Amino acid sequence: MERIKLDEFVNFHFLSNLQLSPNAKKAAFVVSKSNEEKDGYTAGIWIADLVTQECYKLTSGKDERAFLWTDDNTLLFSSRRERKKEEVDAYYTDYFEISLNGGEAQKKMTIPAPVEGLKELEKDKYLVCISYDNNLPKNFFEQSREERKKVLEDRAEEKDYEVFDELPFWRNGEGVTNKKRSRLYIYDAVKNTLDPLTESMYQLDGYALSKDHQKVLYCGSDFRGVENLKQELVELDLTTKEKSVLIPMNSWNIHRVDYVGTKIVVTATENKDYGINENVALYYYDREEGCLQLICNPDRSYSSSVGSDCRYGGGKSFVTDENGITYITTDHNSSKLVHVDMDGNLESLTADEGSVDCFDRNGEVIVYVAMRADRLQEVYTLKDGQEFCLSSINKKVLQDKAVVTPKSLRITNNDGVEIDGWVIEPVDYDPTKSYPAILDIHGGPKTVYGTCFFHEMQYWASQGYFVFFCNPRGGDGRGNSFADIRGRYGQDDYEDIMQFTDYVLWTYPQIDKSRVGVTGGSYGGFMTNWIIGHTHRFAAAASQRSISNWISMEGTSDIGPYFGMDQSGGNAWENFEQAWWHSPLKYADKCTTPTLFIHSDEDYRCWMVEAYQMYSALKVHGVESRICLFHGENHELSRSGKPKHRIRRLKEITEWFDHYLK
Question: Is the pTM of this model over 0.70?
Fold first, then answer.
């Protein structure tokens, strides 16, 4: 069997945005793939025929990432295939129509704005969510191409400086967002006009269209300074344009809104008991009482948080019909589909294995993208309650590769809490030999590891490493009390990880205790920084997109103003010593572990100053350290960064460990 290579992921196909046709006989989905030549990702639309059980490619596979069904045999999709690379072109969105019966795609319309979402209301009329920039002239969307070009050229003369006057002023993956909003419009394709439904300073966080297309339900907030953590819920009549505020601002943190028939359902929390990471519950809006009424509270998330570096793109995780809601939830170490009716009765639909990444449902027909066992993403459906694989897009990619199945290890920690973990043995493992090992720590912290395929872990196993990982307290899938480590970062979680490490080394005496490394990203980077300041047991470390100082993180991260205080229990003005006590930087003078820092200069979730501070502290104290800073990348470098950057990142980490562990 051939070993997994450093750049193996460039051969993988990433599946997303799965949507059923109106008659539920076909499903369309996006397939993305690395493009090393352009150092990016191409994306095309594929069709899964549920009748013939065949999958085939529909579009050219360049940049077709967003689409909708207009009838059982026709798709409307956005593409930049006819656009130049001028800045002005980013402010137009072209839509093309293609028939499943054959023929080339034909241009249907051009919406004179950057579109984030599109829903058809009636023939030639659409509900659109648009990226709106209040820094541009108010009539920008009505201007001609030449007028827009002049505006952008004038603005380019001021490119040497930025003006911020609100929080957040930037967002990870989006860049500077000061005075930029997601905004709802109605687009008339015949008149080529945009009619705004929400105000220019209103940040739209979620919306849904009623089944009869007469009403729109949305949540968000109008902010001019500091963004609100809790949103209002509004219902808008598209005929009269009358708005009804159903839930006022500052009472609920609303995650999703939708219709079940004529009823309104909401996932929300008041964040009273477990802070900003509190699991939402499912409610319906009682029109008579004017308040939310509980349907159920399973104390689990309404999405998948199962980690993998083999995904690209999103898709539906919450679908309603007349009988209730089907949604993705993370339960322990996997994510699955669950259905709940309006009486709160829950039914699991898929197996407790791997992850369901996105899905769609139409009546009794359910299709979903999932990762199973040691396999990459494929499209699945349910037949008589049994799972059936519809696609084989990634089948040959790993067919002759040496993929090692993670072996489950479970410990009971000193507090009597069970902690789940896994070990990936080296390829061609020989129990009579001695091996180095790498401890890998997940991000979040409210995410989970499971059995899903991880390219980086399999690559390290192919290079002769043991790889082990676990789900310490603070993670998802086991309820609020398990996830709640507010004010205890570096305590409960650290003990869990160290006890799991002890158990792995006891179980596998073949691991050389003097040749064990540690790595992790985001929260895993924080924990890597924390570990090297509290133990000398690791021979090398690789800290990725980390936090080192809760005080600086609070003032630089896009989520810092609320995340720092909520999670550490202090800030610069209240309980400063608490925040500093939980900052790995405080203990940098105790470090002796050679440490590599991987960071990106457009990571606005954990800004690069976090790595700079820890790196500088280690250098001052004579510890071998190195930074590899990636330009133009953000917090998602390891998952959706440019292919060449992803290759260089993994090369840096592996060579660092090779130097100190082999």
Answer: yes
